[in-house]
Amino acid sequence: MATSDLFLDIPGQEQAIRQLQESLADPLHAYAFLGPQGSGSLRAARDFAAGLLCENGGCGICESCFKVRRGIHPDVLYHEPDGTQYKLDHVTPRKDGPPAHETITGQAQRRPLEGPRTIIIIERADLLRLAAPALLKTLEEPPPTTVFLLLANDFPRDLETIRSRCVVISFDSLQPTTIAEWLIDQGIGHELAASLAEGSAGDADRALLLAKDPDYVQRLALWQQVPDRLDGSGSTATELALEVHNSLKDASAMLEQLQAQELDELTEDSKARGERSLPGKKELLDRHKREIRRFQTNELIAGLAILARRYRDRMLAAERSATPSAPETMRACGEAVDTIGQLVSMLPRNPRQPLALERLFLQLSHEA
Question: What is the pTM of this model?
């Protein structure tokens, strides 16, 4: 394939990118992009979709590639669960459910509108669960012009049949050093790059966005102060949880600003081409909503990682001190780390994150 602009902004995933580039020449009907959020799997899926629809084999710069990478191509359809799992009527038509053309299996049967294929991207595919059997037959025998891209951290055992129908593309967790080096290549200073990489929760895109956020340092400090501010009272835990939650909402302001700028640029470009309205505007706005939700969840996960690290530091300090109270301090801090880890594992399936945060702080008040 000729030199391409695709896959250039995905650090640390050379093997996965090589697999995808080789697959463009002779694509199969379904791929599973497996790796943690922030590892670049979503960006890679978008670039792979661009390559599958590009008349030039994946140039990355033509109008088709431009539309796919901006999330406004009519032949690239995105799905994510509404809540803790995919509902059955999201996957296949049912009486009193959404119309067939809004379901995954219904869209799989449609003809492409502009390009040679229809690409269906299913985010959080590990939450298909009860809806998986309804998808299985279509996944096994889709129309020749339909390609499925399923994104998940990993597939649980009860979704092994789904996994077995896909070509697996594995994405590794990004190490802070990899992210820091990538940020430096983007023009970020060494010291700031190291700080952003450490607080990025393994998400390079998030780290780059935080580099433009003037409030990042204050949010980092707020998370680090939590153990010292919890005093055992419920009112303090509630107040601190609200403060942290508001900081998380404010954190998305930079992303919302960039999204508004993107919408303005695309609208002006559309007017310059003589179009009465922006094609794919609904799809673009839907993508923006997904990005905001994902960013806020990842920001919370990153903050909880900082909080867990503070308790680990306390545990190590107690171990070194060898004081009579050290064993109890170590036990309490260990329980706090476990409690934080339990919340992190539940977050993608928990739509009531502010309440979960308040409960966490109340529990930490009594544990450590």
Answer: 0.77
